[in-house]
Specification:
Helix content is 1%, strand content 45%. The protein is an all-beta fold.
Length: 302
């Protein structure tokens, strides 16, 4: 039986697993706000995990840092990439908890492909404004380390099909990727593109698995809303530590359940940042980096 922790406050219930510090359940007044997964089993599709020390993919699992060429395990063999970091297989340790908050920690590295040591801390706080997650990384070694992070929830607006959900978020460009490996090609403007959701509209049949940037931050926060035409909805906000946003419509071939949630992943850096260097965080010895995001219920407008 795997260890998990339950938080309840303000009409919300959250369940977080020790494995991968994954958000297994998030409900508001009994309705799912993320796609859950069964207790005690494997975590499908990285649902709810903290992806660190890099988000998304590294091509061939190979990168160069401070002149050293390093090889990570290729855990997405069909695309030949290293996917979603090294923290997800780990059992995180409980540091502290109460009815409305929880802090889990783990240590990443050193390994052959990541010869660095990061101390990660994930603090979950639940109240009437939703579930806030704050992830802090501290470089516990005597050499600099490359770093990036993102959450991996699949949001659920309501009981209608995903195609009918109304999406809105403010960004001005997206990262084009290769169709076979989903590796970066270059930035493209959103104006007039099928991925432009700066004004709220239904997702329809559009298939998305792309990173967006040029995100609008208002008062230090960016916001995304996802509404079901039946009136329910879910929102997500994040701070300026995450200038990138990965959106994925969870398209799956039959007979796998298809388009069951919308992956919304605020990222500190884009895919393959260990190679491009774009917005890659360089953590010096003893340095810390913190990123935070919040998931909350949207009520039907009056």
């Amino acid at each position: 039986m795997s260890t998990e922790f339950t938080l309840s406050a303000g009409g919300y219930t959250a369940v977080v697993t020790a494995r991968a510090a994954a958000l297994r359940v998030l409900q508001f007044e009994g309705r799912d706000m993320v796609v859950p997964f069964p207790e005690g089993g494997p975590i499908p599709d990285y649902r709810g995990v903290i992806a660190a020390p890099w988000p998304n993919r590294i091509a061939d699992g190979v990168y160069v840092f401070d002149g050293n060429k390093l090889q990570l395990p290729v855990n997405e063999p069909e695309r030949g990439t290293a996917l979603h970091g090294l923290a997800f297989p780990l059992d995180w340790t409980l540091k502290e908890s109460d009815a409305g908050s929880l802090t889990l920690t783990c240590t990443v590295g050193p390994t052959a492909g990541y010869p660095f040591v990061l101390e990660l801390s994930a603090r979950f706080t639940l109240d009437g404004s939703g579930l806030n997650t704050q992830v802090t990384a501290r470089n516990a070694a005597d050499v600099a380390a490359p770093y990036g992070v993102c959450p991996h929830p699949y949001l659920v607006a309501g009981s209608s099909p995903l195609d009918e959900w109304v999406l809105e978020f403010a960004a001005d460009s997206f990262l084009e990727v290769t169709p076979d490996r989903l590796l970066p090609v270059g930035l493209a403007e959103l104006e007039g593109h099928a991925f432009d959701f700066r004004s709220p509209r239904a997702i329809g049949s559009t298939e998305i698995d792309h990173a967006f940037t040029g995100i609008t931050f208002d008062g230090g926060l960016a916001r995304l809303s996802l509404r079901d035409p039946a009136g329910t909805g879910v929102g997500m906000s994040w701070d300026e530590s995450c200038p990138w946003l990965q959106i994925h419509t969870a398209d799956k071939p039959a007979p796998i359940p298809n388009r069951i949630g919308l992956a919304v992943e605020p990222m500190t850096c884009p895919p393959d940042a260990f190679n491009s260097g774009t917005d890659l965080i360089r953590l010096e010895p003893g340095a810390e980096h913190t990123a935070s995001w919040t998931i909350y219920a949207l009520q039907q407008p009056n």
